[in-house]
């Protein structure tokens, strides 16, 4: 087996229009494709962020996340940024609450967390 990378990250949201706006207008993702799947009463929105892809799904009445961020399963999604302070400022100017900046004790790099509209923990990590 030769895994060459991660193809996409899939996120299920509770309010499709709110999350679509957040990922496009706040995080700056661009739309690759948007599909409504009538049989599932569900949208699938393919988004590009840098070289990576996020699939944003809507389903009727998805269960809430058990806890943040220590539930079993995917812990959080981390985005690489070149200027942490500038990114924090931009997020805050768009009404996003951002935690205080911390330093990774292993790498010495700086990072912080914020949340998407469904309280999914998102990290920005100084590259």
UniProtKB/TrEMBL annotation:
Pfam families, per database record: Glyoxalase
InterPro entries registered for this protein in UniProt: Fosfomycin_Res_Enzymes, Glyas_Bleomycin-R_OHBP_Dase, Glyas_Fos-R_dOase_dom, VOC_core, YwkD-like_dom
Keywords for this protein: Metal-binding
Domain VOC: 5-127
Superkingdom of origin organism: Bacteria
Descriptive protein name: VOC family protein
Lineage, uppermost ranks: Bacteria, Bacillati, Cyanobacteriota, Cyanophyceae, Oscillatoriophycideae
């Amino acid at each position: 087996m030769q895994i060459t990378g991660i193809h996409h990250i899939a996120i299920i949201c509770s309010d499709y229009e709110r999350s679509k706006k957040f990922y496009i207008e706040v995080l700056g993702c661009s739309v690759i494709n948007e599909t409504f799947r009538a049989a599932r009463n569900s949208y699938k929105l393919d988004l590009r962020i840098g070289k990576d892809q996020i699939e944003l799904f809507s389903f009727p009445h998805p269960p809430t996340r058990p806890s943040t961020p220590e539930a079993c399963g995917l812990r959080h999604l981390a985005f690489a940024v070149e200027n942490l302070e500038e990114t924090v400022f931009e997020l805050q100017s768009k009404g996003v609450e951002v935690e205080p900046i911390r330093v990774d004790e292993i790498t010495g790099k700086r990072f912080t967390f914020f949340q998407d509209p469904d309280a999914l923990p998102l990290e920005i990590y100084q590259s």
